[in-house]
Design a protein that fits this description.
Length: 372
């Protein structure tokens, strides 16, 4: 975001809902960057379906319950959080604002929720854990296995409190917006954990893939298997989370491998187009896991009512990705704080109106799915 765009940035207090943050970000971001954040893979069927599926979930509220002391706190991976929510791993945050990941991490710390630093972060994990707060490290499995394990050791040494292995990216999905825009990273943005200088991600692409897709295809391993998960489980003492689970059978296998949590996710509609919406996969995963690990959900969360829906369907919490990035683009750290404040206010409102004195009570609510 250049200085001219910064001059057009809105005041965080003017944002009244997460859609306002998205509109404000669209006004300041270059079109290609906006498309990189907003876009999905293929015809974006799954991207759109994530939102549609959430809006088909209706909660049956309870009444005549004392909600005068309604609280939103919970625990995630055994640690307290003020909301059943964590910031999802999002790559290259300095693309949307010079303050990048540190601004988002500070906002998460202030909100009392975990921040997840991506393997493709534009700022190294050490700089983010140094800010305090609860920091999780997301890992893409690399072609060089030892390098993958080195990144985990590095995150542990830096003070990360969990490792999140993304399991649905043997390579990057074909994101047509990026292909059409011939999207490449600007020179000032890099994957801080993978290279010191410009890489293939910075060069104008050729053929059918974006520069980022070409770069990640060169470094991500398509040979990630359950044996890799087992090796990682043996390698780290930290809580282990698998992100990208849709099949209940895979969730059961994850439990058998000793993971502490799974994230029911279709990568925000950015991987397999036509994949099941996350919220539709959630109940089956929760049922099959049967309390043996935590179940989180992402892909499409856009308001506090969505958090309530996820909890009512059995999730322990949710991950939020794009809305935080829109807030960052619109107003830096203050924009992310505003997004998280809005989610906190909306979630508390939804809890109380549903007759829930706390987040745990939301998991006892009944839901009805209305199709069509």
């Amino acid at each position: 975001m250049d200085s001219t765009s910064a001059d057009r940035a809105v005041r965080p207090e003017d944002l009244r809902c997460l859609a306002d943050a998205e509109r404000a970000a669209a006004a300041v971001l270059p079109a290609a960057v906006r498309d990189f954040v907003a876009g999905g893979s293929g015809a974006e069927v799954t991207l759109d379906a994530n939102r549609t599926a959430l809006d088909r979930v209706f909660v049956v509220p309870r009444v005549l319950r004392d909600v005068s002391g309604c609280t939103t706190g919970t625990t995630l991976l055994g640690r307290p959080a003020r909301l059943p929510l964590a910031l999802a791993p999002v790559a290259y945050q300095r693309l949307v604002h010079p303050a990048g990941e540190p601004a988002a991490a500070r906002a998460a710390r202030a909100a009392g929720v975990p921040f997840t630093v991506s393997t493709l972060s534009s700022v190294p994990v050490e700089a983010l854990t140094a800010l305090g707060g609860d920091v999780w490290f997301q890992l893409y499995w690399l072609r060089d296995t030892e390098r993958s394990l080195d990144l985990v050791r590095r995150a542990e040494d830096a003070g990360a409190t969990a490792v999140m292995l993304t399991v649905d990216v043997p390579w990057m999905g074909r994101r047509l917006r990026d292909v059409r825009n011939r999207f490449a990273l600007p020179d000032h943005v890099r994957a801080a954990h993978l290279e010191e200088g410009p890489s293939a991600a910075h060069r104008a692409p050729s053929g059918r893939a974006s520069a980022l897709a070409a770069h990640t295809a060169a470094v991500f391993s398509p040979a990630l298997t359950w044996s890799s998960v087992e090796a990682l489980r043996e390698h780290t003492r930290l809580p282990l989370v698998l992100k990208g689970i849709l099949a209940a059978e895979d969730a059961v296998r994850a439990v058998e491998c000793g993971v502490d949590a799974v994230v029911v996710s279709n990568h925000g509609g950015r991987q397999l187009d036509g994949a099941l919406p996350s919220v539709d996969a959630l109940p089956d995963v929760v049922g099959r896991v049967a309390g043996r690990c935590e179940v989180l959900m992402d892909s499409g969360i856009r308001c506090g009512t969505d958090v309530l829906r996820a909890l009512a369907l059995g999730a322990s919490g949710v991950l939020v990705g794009r809305p935080a990035l829109w807030g960052l683009a619109a107003g830096g750290e203050g924009g992310v704080r505003r997004v998280l404040d809005l989610l906190a206010d909306e979630f508390r409102d939804a809890l109380g109106l549903a007759g829930c004195p706390d987040a745990a009570a939301a998991r006892e609510l009944r839901t009805v799915r209305r199709d069509g």
